[in-house]
Amino acid sequence: MDDVETRVIRMAGEWGRYTPAIERHETALCRFAPAPTELSRFGNQRLAPAFAEWMMMWPAGWVTDPVIGLSRNEQLRIIGNGVVSAQAVHGFRQLLNRAMTTA
């Protein structure tokens, strides 16, 4: 959790009004948020797959590890079609509670 780039972004206040939410998420995951954007080959800002992966509460590198060999588009498609584990757990708990009370 000692990523210099993340510290620079945090110090610059780029999270703005989302700072409290980002900090809660960092606490829950026990790691700092990666940079939200990266530069394209043309020098334009674009969504960083590592940030999207982090927002999904997945382990670092779950989809974005270079060893896996996925392109950026493949990474974003997988992340975009994925499920946030915490939300899935909450949903299953709700269903189980409802099933227990109606049984």
Q: What attributes does this structure have?
A:
103 residues; mainly alpha; two-stranded antiparallel sheet
Short characterization:
Helix content is 52%, strand content 6%.
Structure description:
The chain has a two-stranded antiparallel sheet. With 103 residues, the protein is mainly alpha-helical. The protein has 5 helices and 2 strands; from the N terminus they run H-H-E-E-H-H-H. The longest helix is centred in the C-terminal third of the chain and has 18 residues, at 85-102. It has helices spanning 4-12, 19-29, 49-55, 72-80, 85-102, and strands spanning 37-39, 45-47. It has one domain. Strand 1 and strand 2 form a beta hairpin.
Series of secondary-structure elements, N-terminal to C-terminal? HHEEHHH
Count of helical regions:
5
Query: Uncertain spans, ≥5 residues at pLDDT below 50?
Result: none
Fraction of helical residues: 40-55%
Main sheet specs: 2 strands, antiparallel
What layout of secondary structure does this protein have?
Layout: H1 4-12, H2 19-29, E1 37-39, E2 45-47, H3 49-55, H4 72-80, H5 85-102
Antiparallel strand pairs: 1-2
